[in-house]
Amino acid sequence: LMKALLLLLLFLFGLTYANDELILVFDLSRHGARAPLVEQYSQDFDVNVGMLSASGMRQHYLIGRYLRKKYIEQMEFLSPQYKEDEVHVTSTHLGRTIQSARCHLIGLYPPESSNNQIQGDFEKSMPLMNLSDDYVGNTRYSIPSKYEPIAVHNNEQKRDTVYSLGSCPYLYSKMNARRENPSAWKKFDAYFKPRIYKKIAEYFGLPEQELNYQSTYVLGDALVSLEFEGLFSRENFTEEEWLDVKRLQIPWLIDSVSPLGNKLMVSKLFNPILEFMLMKMGRDHDNRQLTGFRGTEKYIYFSTHDTMIANFLRFFNPENFELEYVDYASGFIFELYKRPNGEYYVKIFYNNSQIKLHE
Q1: pTM (2 decimals)?
Q2: Is the pLDDT of residue 166 over 60?
């Protein structure tokens, strides 16, 4: 963590000049819009519980398109066609983050940019099955739409040392114990109950006295999912009340861990990136933390959850920024630049707006 703090000293926020060279982009974002996490409230969705909706897919596709325009067409930083040695994509083990990563990549490398034509003998690309011409077709592209599958790396939960809390006994045990302890949330009950519990209880047909912060957070999360897809009208909620519904999210994400837990959570993900930056800068770094990287990557993308984004925001604590909620597809982009005089600096963007850290 100390090395991370030292590297933060390089986070300068001066102007980028024409001769400055972009050498690395680290992209970290929450998955797109999804169905509620409780089956009871996801019955009106066309997808399964917690899975990415069509709107969520489009969110990440459009982000990918924007990144293609910026880093390929305008800055000519990445190659127009996908190259494995330039791009590394990782996701948590859940379907909604894997789907988000794939949609992100379709925008960044759309089918029309692919050159996945079969070279040499076309017949050798046939599987060992007796297929008719109706199946085979006559295209020389591996997939008729010219879509090129791009690897999305992930591990099952217990082996995921970067994203999953299960690989850190301290974080896992502390978070679960706190989330299951009603007394830990009394101050949030005191804040939210007079503001929003009655309206939420009325919508779901529940007795208000049965609600506590833990249950109300789940209900609020379902309302946000439903409202995003146009399946719920918030006309009975004032603007401030609806903001409170969204604000239910942050205590659950932030206060489930201690300040130490916050640092552990962020460092698990960010330390390998910091080591990679140090390597790119020609400085001492820890190769043990670079497992899975080739060393040639220019764009690294992590598809994750609101918990990670919220804790990144808490850790970095940007100037003139109030953390109220983390919307679907929200994320960070870190750009590492090198100046002609050998100095390095990092630009940080949150939802495409540049942020500045406190001195």
Answers
A1: 0.88
A2: no
